[in-house]
Amino acid sequence: MKTRPPPGRSVSSGLTEPVVPASITLNSMTPFIGHVADPDDIEQHAREANVGVSIAIDRGGTFCDVIAKVPDREPIVFKLLSEDPANYADAPTEAIRRVLETTEGRSIPVGEKLDGSGIGKSGYSDNDKHMTDHFKASCRIGTTVGTNALLEHKGEKFAFVATKGFKDVCVIGDQTRPKLFALDVKKADALHQSVIEVDERITVEDYDLNPTPMDKQAALDDPDLVRTRSGEIIRVLKSIDAKQVRDQLLELKSQGYTSLAIALLHSYLYPDHEKAVETIAREVGFQYVTISSEASPVIKYLRRSISVCSEAYLYPVIRRYVENFESGFRVLPQRVEFMCSDGGLKQAQKFRGNEALLSGPAGGVVGIAQSCYDRNEGTPLIGFDMGGTSTDVCRYDGKYDHLTESRIAERTIAVPMLNIQTVAAGGGSVLFARNGLLVVGPESAGAFPGPASYRKGGPLTVTDANLFLGRLDLSSFPAIFGKNADEPLDTEIVKKKFQEMTDDFNAQTSQSLSPEELAAGFLNVANETMSRPIRNTTEARGYAPEGHNLVSFGGAGGQHACSIADKLGIKRILIHKWSSLLSAYGISQAQLQYEAAEPHSGDLTDLEILAVESKLEILKQKVRRELIDQGASDKSIQYDESLSLRYFGTDTNLVISKPLDGDYAAAFISEHLREFAFNLERKIVIDSLQIRGIGSAGALIQEAPPTEALQRAQAEGKKAVATERQKVYVDGAWCDVDMIRLAKAEKGTIVDGPALILDATQTIFVEPRFRGYILPDHVVIDMFDPLAQLKETVEEKFSPIQLSIFAHRFMSIAEQMGNTLQRTAISTSIRERLDFSCAIFSPDGQLVANAPHIPIHLGSMQMAIQSQHRHWLGKLRSGDVVMTNHPEWGGTHLPDITVITPVFVNDQIAFYTASRGHHTDIGKH
Question: Where is the Hydantoinase B/oxoprolinase domain positioned along the sequence (predicted)?
Answer without folding.
Answer: 800-923
